[in-house]
Amino acid sequence: MRKQLILSILSVTLLVAGCSTTDTMKPKDSMAKDTTMSKESSSMMKDGIFMKDGKVMETMDGKTTNLMMDVTLKDGTKIMMDGTVVMKDGTKAMLKNGEMYDMDGMKSMVNTGM
C-alpha cells in the first residue's frame, strides 16, 4: 500500500512538472517570433521622399523608386522631381543627399546606403 502511494505521488509530480515545462516554453517561442518580426519591420524604410546619390527617391509601402511626379505633403510642403522643396510659406530649399521628408512634412536624415 505504501509503495502504491509513493508511486502515485511520484506520477502526479512528474505529470505536473511536465505540464509546467511545456507551458513555459510557449511564451518564449512566441516572444522569439515577435522579436524577429520587429527586426524585419524596423529594416523597412518609412514612407517619404529623400535624396540618394543626387536622385530624388520615394518610398511607399516599403517600395523605393525614383520620384516620378511632384508631390504635395500633408502639411502643404511641395517636393519637385528635381529636388526643389517649396515650404507652405513659399520658402525654397534643395533636398540634399540623406535628407528625407515624411508624408506629414517632417524632415529627417536617413541612411541612404541601401
Give a brief outline of the structure.
With 114 residues, the chain is of the alpha+beta class.
Per-chain topology:
Layout: H1 2-43, E1 48-52, E2 55-60, E3 63-66, E4 71-72, E5 78-79, E6 84-86, E7 92-94, E8 99-102, E9 107-109
Antiparallel strand pairs: 1-2, 1-8, 2-3, 4-5, 5-6, 6-7, 8-9
Gyration radius, to the nearest Å? 28 Å
- What is the residue-averaged pLDDT? 79
When the domains are counted, the total is 2
Count of extended strands: 9
Q: What series of H and E elements makes up the topology? A: HEEEEEEEEE
Largest sheet: 5 strands, antiparallel
The percentage of residues in β strands lies in: 25-35%
The rounded distance between the terminal residues' Cα atoms is: 73 Å
List low-confidence stretches. 22-42
What general form does the structure show? Answer: rod-shaped
Walkthrough of the structure:
With 114 residues, the chain is of the alpha+beta class. It folds into two domains: 1-43; 48-106, no CATH class. It has one helix and nine strands, in the order H-E-E-E-E-E-E-E-E-E. It has one helix spanning 2-43, and strands at residues 48-52, 55-60, 63-66, 71-72, 78-79, 84-86, 92-94, 99-102, 107-109. A five-stranded antiparallel beta sheet has the order 3-2-1-8-9, with no helix packed on it. The protein has a four-stranded antiparallel beta sheet with strand order 4-5-6-7, with no helix packed on it. The radius of gyration is 28 Å and the shape is rod-shaped.
Provide keyphrases for this structure:
single chain; alpha+beta; 2 domains; four-stranded antiparallel beta sheet; 9 strands
